[in-house]
Amino acid sequence: MTAQLDTAWEPRAQALADELETRGDLTDPAWKAAVAATPRHVLVPKVYEQGTTGEWHSVDVASPSGLDRVYSPTTLITALANHGTHHESISSSTKPDLMVRMLETLDVHDDHTVLEIGTGTGYNAALLTHRLGAERVFSVDLDAEIVDPARERLASIGLRPTLVTRDGAEGLREHAPFDRIIATCSVPTVPRAWCDQLVDGGLLLVDIKAGPTAGNLVLLRRDGDRLEGRFTDRWATFMQMRHHHEQPRSLHPPTDAGARTRTTKTPPDPWQHNREVWFLAHFTGLPNGVRHGMRFDPDTRQPTAGTITAPEGSHAFVMLEPTPDGAWSVTESGPTRLWQAVEGAHQMWRAAGEPGWPRLGVTVEASDQWAWIDDPHGEYQWSLTI
Ligand SMILES: C[S@@+](CC[C@H](N)C(=O)[O-])C[C@H]1O[C@@H](n2cnc3c(N)ncnc32)[C@H](O)[C@@H]1O
């Protein structure tokens, strides 16, 4: 007799809902019921995973181990763009723990209408529709290849929210105003349309990123013509908002010109261990488009240094192992002293009392948007539109 394959999804969805409650990711029974009732495997039929050497392979979602993965608090990559030399993930099903935390942060009530920017697989739209009903849920994504299958899959489980193929930066004027807007892709600044399409007093939850991993989710409330609010305590990151006809940025290879080595008292990987500083460094001299990374020892494969590279070729690397006197060795080259910008941010952050995310906030007005510490008009403020 062959063993019966265990592919039932309901107990797995229920177990996921229980787990999210136990972990404290959700407290609201309505969201718990939505997680338990949503067949995530229907919405995420194809999943890609990256191996240790960087290559992508697809996962069999229908297998028991595939189902275990789908009904776990894990982000699942669902679409790749082929750039010839490499693939880039362009759509995913965000991990359910983050999704429900965001929905709770957004303080959604049963009579609210909600716009989601970034439909992706439709999983979040399914949670929203389960709770609010199809007529109150709207979601947009950039490509019909993403939106159309999501619409079909949602319909196959009886959910029919309004899904539209649209650049989310435009919002969805024909169905505005919305009580809540949730963006599941990151933006450097808040599109004006989102402010205009929120009811007065409405809330927007969005990931503001000044550069890769440099920022966090911020909860903004509309008050007249302005949006204002603070970053959330827990850090999260989403893929960047894309636009059709975007010109790829020209990149110069990192240069050794003018390389200078010295020591620094600023810890070496702020994007991992000091994320507020990494965000602030984008306002204290880091050029637009910087990327961070790691150097690895070729033998042990252990990380040895944090690296920053700018599009114009400037480069910095900071050794992870401290020197005997508690400093770190840093080497900077090229036209911009990249690490100096991080040091400037670190000093300022310390002078401000080492604020965590909830002391940082954002204000959006028609003519300007800025980040601040403690007070929108206080000592520490920086325009986001640089
Ligand atoms: C993390 S995924 C969204 C996950 C989704 N909410 C879910 O539940 O599966 C981010 C999505 O943002 C979308 N996106 C990127 N740029 C966009 C834009 N300009 N307008 C609308 N959607 C965009 C991507 O195509 C991608 O599907």
UniProtKB/TrEMBL annotation:
Designated name of the protein: Protein-L-isoaspartate O-methyltransferase
Cellular component terms (Gene Ontology): cytoplasm
Gene Ontology annotations of biological process type: methylation
Keyword Methyltransferase: yes
Entry-linked InterPro entries: PCMT, SAM-dependent_MTases_sf
Sample GO molecular function, one term: protein-L-isoaspartate (D-aspartate) O-methyltransferase activity
UniProt-listed Pfam families: PCMT
Enzyme class: transferase
Species assigned in the record: Saccharopolyspora spinosa
PANTHER family, per database record: PROTEIN-L-ISOASPARTATE O-METHYLTRANSFERASE, PROTEIN-L-ISOASPARTATE(D-ASPARTATE) O-METHYLTRANSFERASE
Region of interest (Disordered), residue spans: 243-271
